[in-house]
Every structure is written in C-alpha cells, then in structure tokens.
Amino acid sequence: MSSPAPPRLRALRHVALRTTALEESVAFYSGPWGLELVERTPGAAYLRASGPEHHVLELHAAQANALDHVAFALPTPAEVDAAAAWAEAEGAVLLDRPGPLDRPGAGYGFRFLDPENRVLEISALVHAVPERPLDVPVPRKVAHVVLNTTDIDALTAWYTRVLGLRVSDWSEHQMVFLRANADHHVVAFNQAEWAAPNHVAYEVGSLDAWLRSIGRLKVAGHETAWGPGRHGPGDNAFAYYVDPAGLVPEMTAEVLQIDEDTWMPRVWPRIPELSDLFRTAGPPSPDIRRHMGGVPDPGWARPAG
Ligand SMILES: [Fe+2]
What we know:
single chain; about 300 residues; alpha+beta; 2,3-Dihydroxybiphenyl 1,2-Dioxygenase, domain 1; 2 domains; binds fe (ii) ion; VOC family protein; GlyoxalaseI/FosfomycinResist; VOC_core; Glyas_Bleomycin-R_OHBP_Dase
C-alpha cells in the first residue's frame, strides 16, 4: 500500500441539483441546452453530454433549489479506497464505505460531507455510454461548478487538503478557482451570505460551437442572462442563463489549460477590463446575481438522533 496522500482526482464527473421545476428543467436541458436524457425515474433525471461520462447532470425534484451532490472521478477502486481512508483520517464525515454504487451509471465509490454539509462522491469504473452522433454543437462535459460559501478560506483549505485540488487563481478575496487537472478550474467558491449552488458550467468544443449554442438557445426563446463575454480568470468564454427553476447554467468554451509545473496563481482585481476580456457583457445584473445567490442550502440532512 502506498503512503497516505490526498487523492489525485482526474475529473469532475457530474453535478446533481435539486430543482423545484423538474419536468420543465428536463425539457430545457435535453432540448435547447443540448444534453440528452439517459435515465429517468419519477423523481429524477440523468442527462449526458457528448463526452464519455454516463451523465453530467442529475436533476432531483425538490421543494427548494439546492445542490444534491458533486461527483469526482478516479480511475481505480484502489484509489477510491485510498481516497476514503484519506478523507476519514482528515476528519471528513463518510456517508458510506467504498463499494459498488446502486445508482444510474453504477461504478465503485463512496460519499462524504464537506464542512458545509455538501455531499461529495468519488467513483471509479462507471458505465460506458454509446458514442453520441454529433450533428449539432452540444456540451461535451460539465466544466465546473461554482458554490457559494460563508467561509471561502476554510473551504479552500479543506478542498486542497482533503480532495487534493489546487488553487489556480483568486478573484480578489471574493472567489477562488480550484483545479483537479489541466482545466483552470473544476470547482470555484464564491464568498456569500449563505451556502448554495451558484452555477454549473458546460463546455463546448470551440468558440464556434459556443456561439452556435447561444444561437440555438436564442431561437428557442432563451436569451442570455449575462454574456456573451470572456472571463479574466480562466480565460473562458461565458454565457449565463436562468433555467426553469431559477438555477443558473453557463455555456463555456476555451477554458485555460494549465501547466502544473510552471503555473503561478494570481489575484485578479475585479475591474471591468479583467471581468470581461471581450467587453461585450457588461457587469452582471441584479437579477442574475440574485439567481446565482440562490436560496440558503442546508446540505445533507442528518437523520434525527
Ligand atoms: Fe463559471
């Protein structure tokens, strides 16, 4: 057995959201957003992108919008076992032991809690899906999830220590961008009044595919809520929308690729020239800020007693 160390997560696998508008949201994400429904239960839907992941988005019917869980990828059950042992040794609350997953996509994994009671999942060996025919530019993967937190420093320390994520950049002391692989960020935290999902970003393969996706949404009656523009930190093109439940998805492209050996995190001043390199978007409106703020999310509920 190798000496204990943080896991080396290979990717963000999927994001699961609780939504107050399940049916309308399934229609939105499997329609103009460009994902495809792979599995359905009365209370939940599983949607894939064009990449190899079984699904990149789960939607669960709920009384309030919230994060259900975030899933990360490791290649082998042995690495999953080591990640669970590491998390437990670092004081994380494990919800179950590593084992076969009895959920769509199956695989081998476990779940645990972050300090704000978010449910995290680490898994290996999930089911393959058939190649998806690509006659339209659609998202190929989930690029990142941004989470509002009441303690950005504590969360940054915990996610770097327990999950092995690395800090790529700061946006003043307001946001921090964390990477698991060459992508500039797979998780970002935003300092806020309460914990809640801020937005989930989906990546298309090129700027052309990104603009065509914005066009497809526009023709279907969905205008951007912020963007199109291009972020300073991460250098990614962005276009934000509001989904039928009021949650925020982002269509993104050209996320900065990081060289692990030479990268130096920077602190980005929050000025217009760096907030939108295209200078097309302008500042976010109070309305999109409100949607990104969400409603207070208590996270996983402990059973009474
Ligand atoms: Fe984003």
